[in-house]
Amino acid sequence: MNAVHGRYLHIDLSAGTATAYPLPEAVFARLIGGVGLASYLLDRFCPPGADPLGPENPLIFASSPFIGTGITTASKIALTAKSPQTGMIGDSLSSSYLALALKRTGYDALVITGQAPGWTVLAVDDGEIRLLPGSDLLGLDPAATADAVRAELGNSFRVAAIGVAGERGVRYASISNDGRLAGRTGPGAVMGSKRLKAIAVRGTQRLPAVADPRGVVRAARELAERSLGPDTAKYRELGTAANLAFFSRLGVLPTRNFQAGTFEAAEAISGERLFLEHRTDKHGCAACTIGCEHHYRTRDDGETVEVRLEYESLFALGSLCGVSDPNAVLRAAALCDRYGMDAISTGSTIAWAMECVERGVRLPGRPEEWPRFGDAEGLLRTIQAIGERRGLGDLLAEGSRRAAEIVGQGSVEWAMHVKGLELPGYDPRKLKAMALGFAVSTRGACHNRSSAYEVDFSDQLDPHAEALAWARAAARAEDRAAVLDSLTICKFLRHCFSDFFTEAAELFVRVTGLSMTAEELRLAGERINTVKKLFNIRQGWTRADDTLPPRLLSGEASGLTAAELDRLIQAYYRVRGWDEQGLVPPERLHELGLAELLRDDSRMMHGYAG
Amino acid sequence: MSTGTATVRVELFGTPQLLTGQRQVEVPGRTLHEIAGVLAQEFPVLAGPVIDPATGWLNGGYIFVVDGRFTRDASYPVGPESSVLLVSAQAGGAS
């Protein structure tokens, strides 16, 4: 096949070795690349029961066939590891030049296992690796770390780095590269547990040729033109921050730890207000024609901060904590970036603590320092405490699920997570498809691996449609998301396709030379989701893990009951061909072509292959 | 449209709000198509970026929400009691 190298590099930090292994064509034919490839390698390398912060947990970086082809937005790198938040699959995507650099090394993926003897910078220079001292970089934020590493190694290296949060094991620490974050599920904590402060990659190899160069150029040009049309206008002009005021109006804006769906101060932190009063400029990711990354500057008497801001950071550090000062929200987002922490989990865990204070639940640390809803200074102070694991921050660095289990006093009732991953900014009580998507998502409460909210925010289904119809729609949205994440093209592009699976399959054929129909591509999405599910099952997933926080399933304010969610989940399992307990029958694995793929490759992998 | 057509309150979010400088406007119309057409007439800045001048209907990136229901059905009926929002269609991002 074309457009891939057909091999990955396994780096053992404990032994200080790097070994190349082949990747068979079947892996790409069935799982595409990107998140599909990274999930497959995780399943191969991570043993059941592995400690997410132990040396046996692999940290995997994967590229895709589309990277380097000129297809807009395709320069994304996929990361997987067993998540320190969920104990299940942790997968993240990040747009960056690092993806291009990795592909130019001559490898499709890096699998990093073991633990370095001391703080280290891993330099990957084509197929050669060097383990360089990293202790001098401790305490630096990710951007400063990258600058220091490139100053030493040269600007031809691209750098992924962790901040102080990753050094200190904050369970939702992120990995930063080129100013972008692989944020969710705690990959930065995994990297820190390996004593890796940074990974520097330089690739000088030729990119593998595509199968139909002229066809790819033509298709890429057409897609780029469509990416500048009305379907992406929202992202170019306002960015995702535009969601906030509208979501509040709809009653689906998580407010004060999901105690309400409408924020009375929504206008003050709305995307429209931020655009008019705080926006400075906008940027695009590597190889992107859309340019959705909007930057904002504080406008008050305090220290001036300029930061990029998305809706998810805005809601999590704003309405979710009851904070209505846009300057404080911008400073909070900048702090999350500086410490290297996922803003959703940071805001949500602090909101949990704020509700503890509101309800009189005793927390560690000094009461005068406990954060309260609407307390902007308390929010900023607590983010710093988490990043440095000081006082109350040491507890909150564990995430809302673990913090609630430690504190007790009934606080698990308002820990707003699924499988340990805090909910993003969509109140599922009024969003039935999203509720199902959150409950069954393999990485926990996630809007990006499901995208089922799009069903809710459309006229695709009658609100009174039967459970099976919601389940089919949610499964299809999940499959499409898996394909996008594995082709590594941006979800903001998805409406630029008239018929996504048909056109994306045609692109895949032009790039790789492999045959692929629309239905086969959708099936690849299902296969990728099944690989993730199999990983979770091997790590101890049970039916009880597919649920929502109690707050969302009880009380008159909730439009969703536990019984209704259960009906939706059962319907989803039927659509997937799983049994009533959500387990994947052997015959379904055969139908998907996974039994053969996983069995055959287990013989050639040199990591765990149970 | 007859002169007796009722006025409908339309709330604008995102780009439509920024372009018009208004969060809420009142326009006459009995269907969403009529509403879109009048919006394009009364707020010419919407014609092109949000509403296709040739069809008088929404561009692909926009959708109406009527009484909590998302719809791009141009014939969808509305009245003075309707809650009508004009918003950008939704899509998620990376990470």
Describe it.
- The complex is a heterodimer of chains A (610) and B (95).
- Chain A has 610 residues and is an alpha+beta fold.
- Chain A has three domains: 7-202, Aldehyde ferredoxin oxidoreductase, N-terminal domain (Aldehyde Ferredoxin Oxidoreductase,  A, domain 1); 227-422, Orthogonal Bundle (Aldehyde Ferredoxin Oxidoreductase Protein, subunit A, domain 2); 428-602, Aldehyde Ferredoxin Oxidoreductase Protein, subunit A, domain 3 (Orthogonal Bundle).
- Chain A is 40% helix and 13% strand.
- Chain A has a six-stranded mixed beta sheet.
- In chain A, strand 16 and strand 17 form a beta hairpin.
- The two termini of chain A are 28 Å apart.
- Residues 601-610 of chain A have low confidence and may be disordered.
- Helices cover 18% and strands 29% of the residues of chain B.
- Chain B has 95 residues and is an alpha+beta fold.
- Chain B has a single domain, classed as Ubiquitin-like (UB roll), CATH 3.10.20.30.
- Chain B is built from two helices and seven strands.
- The longest helix of chain B has 11 residues, at 32-42.
- Chain B has a five-stranded mixed beta sheet with strand order 2-1-7-5-6. A two-stranded antiparallel sheet of chain B has the order 3-4.
- The model of chain B has no long low-confidence stretch (mean pLDDT 90).
- Chain A binds chain B through residues 76, 92-95, 180-184, 229-235, 237-238, 240, 242-243, 245-246, 249-250, 271-272, 275-276, 292, 310, 312, 447-448, 451, 453-454, 456-459, 463, 490-492, 494-495, and chain B through 11, 13-15, 17-18, 49, 59-63, 65, 68-73, 85, 87-95.
What's the short story on this structure?
Chain A is of the alpha+beta class.
Can you identify the CATH class of chain B? Answer: Alpha Beta
Helix/strand/pairing category of chain B: alpha+beta
Helix content of chain B: 10-25%
How many domains of chain A, as an integer?
Answer: 3
Oligomeric state of shown chains? heterodimer
Corresponding CATH superfamily of chain B: Beta-grasp domain
Strand order of the largest sheet of chain B: 2-1-7-5-6
Helix content bin of chain A: 40-55%
Report the sheet with the most strands of chain A, covering strand number, pairing sense and barrel closure.
6 strands, mixed
Shape of chain B: globular
CATH fold call of chain B? Ubiquitin-like (UB roll)
Instruction: Report the sheet with the most strands of chain B, covering strand number, pairing sense and barrel closure.
Output: 5 strands, mixed
- By CATH reckoning, the class of the largest domain in chain A would read Alpha Beta
Order of helices and strands of chain B: EHEHEEEEE
Distance N to C terminus of chain B: 48 Å
List unreliable stretches of 5+ residues of chain B.
none
CATH architectural name of the largest domain in chain A:
4-Layer Sandwich
Instruction: Tell me what portion of residues of chain B adopts beta-strand conformation.
Output: 25-35%
CATH topology of the largest domain in chain A: Aldehyde Ferredoxin Oxidoreductase,  A, domain 1
Count of alpha/pi helices of chain B: 2
What's the CATH H-level superfamily name of the largest domain in chain A? Aldehyde ferredoxin oxidoreductase, N-terminal domain
